[in-house]
Amino acid sequence: MISYYIKGVTKNIDDLIGLTKEDIDDIKNAKNEAIYNRTKIKDEIISLFENNKSLLDSELIKLIEKNPDKELSDLLVKNEKEDLEILKNKLKELQILNKNYAKLVVAVNEFYSSLFDKIFPTEMENYKKINPKSFSLLRVSA
What is the pLDDT of residues 69-121, one digit of tens each? Predict the structure, then answer.
């Protein structure tokens, strides 16, 4: 049963890795709509991951409670240990991808914020942005 739950969690992580790679490609190509459309799918996979991880945790706790004098690594069979190692590596891969994605998101946000500030300049008063300066770009003569 433990092996089954490990494989379920690993599949969820694989799915998130694939979607995050697509997000990275799409943010580089300014395909914001595609990223937005995947958000719901990612949320569902994260919910599945959390559920599968809870089931795995529960099974591991039961195993430890039945054998309190032994270490968890001694209680798992070889293929379960290997599957846990694979899961650990997948989680590291996802973490690295998410860091890279976050860097891209921050860069894009900074770009759009600076562009917006150049087009619609605002004045600062005590660390607050106040009414924008006159919009010479938007003046229309009738």
Answer: 999 889 999 999 999 999 999 999 999 999 999 999 999 999 888 888 888 77
Between CA 95 and CA 101 the distance in angstroms is 10
**Phi and psi based region of residue 71 (left: phi greater than 0; alpha: psi -120 to 50; beta: remaining):** beta
Residue 64 · residue 75 · CB < 8 Å:
yes
| Cβ-proximal residues to 56 (8 Å cutoff; 6+ apart), any chain | 2, 5, 6, 8, 9
C-beta neighbour count of 53 within 10 angstroms: 17
Tokens at residue 62, please?
């039961």
Phi-psi category of residue 30: left, alpha or beta, with phi > 0 → left and psi -120 to 50 → alpha: left
Task: Quote the pTM value.
Answer: 0.80
Q: Quick one: how far is CA 91 from the chain centroid?
A: 11
Give dist(CA 16, CA 39) in Å, integer: 11
Q: Is 107 helix (H, G, I), strand (E, B) or coil?
A: helix
